[in-house]
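Case study: Transcriptional regulator FNR.
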Amino acid sequence: MCVGRSLKWGLRGGSAILGGFLADCASQSKRLSRSHTGSAQGGKVNGNADKVGASTNANIRYGPKTAPLGNDLALLYPPPALDDDSLLKLNSLVRPVHCLPRRRAILYRAGTPCQAIYAVNSGAMKSYRITAAGEQQVAAFHLPGEFLGLSGLARGYHPFSAEALQLTSICVLPFERLSELAHEVPALQRQLLRLLSSTIAREERLWEAMTGHSADRRLAFMLIDLRRRLPSRRTAPDELRLPMSRAELGSCAGLAAETTSRVLRRFERSGWISSSGRTIVLRRPEALRRLVGGEAREAAARSSAAPDGARQQR
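Here is what the predicted structure looks like once written out:
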């Protein structure tokens, strides 16, 4: 089912759809899990060049229960949305964990069954795929308070692999229990629908920012976006301590590592940023915003000025 299409039907209709959708996901993930049991490591799934290993969930170390907080998690936990009883049920479902306590640990691999969604409590993750040429292409970064694993909802398997960029703790929300609880608590269905809508909107913003724009504009957008999403110190809100390498940052923007370095040096010469290792200070964030906004307006103007046939071809 197309989740985006169901959003415009409104929360009431969407909630009913979401309940059935989650049940289908849980059922499908069970079937896929059974079909993957006993499969050899290193196989290829659906032509994906990424290697599929055994599930890494057995290696997750479970920690004490805590109340999850953060950007996406706040969509599940706004105080007026759920009563005390519903919050207790949801808290019993969410399992905070300390996941694979080392950098570059794999949470799941592309092609493995999607049996849960995950929320980052602390640290950072990246989603990526391996291209036909054998190169790693970063699809997204997942920062504290954000979810990952949602792209496997409709498919029943993960289309991307997920890797920890640093020591990372996560919450696990199993599909089967989430489906059952969504039927018991209608307000939770509405909150999950908001979560899916928010995730789709964030992916659309990233896609629009990366499509048909210059390398400078793409990287400016990434820096402004990370400034908004990364935890910041109150005394230095414009200082970004990147959990990812510059090559990974560029990969998410569709840029080669050399291009990324060249653009960042150009930003430094312009006085827009200063950098040392993985720390980048936005000296003139308004200049980066103007670059992002200016190119967006120019692209919109070109699109509106183009003949109808040309717009359709694009």
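For the exam, be able to explain this: Residues 1-23, 38-71 have pLDDT under 50 and may be disordered.
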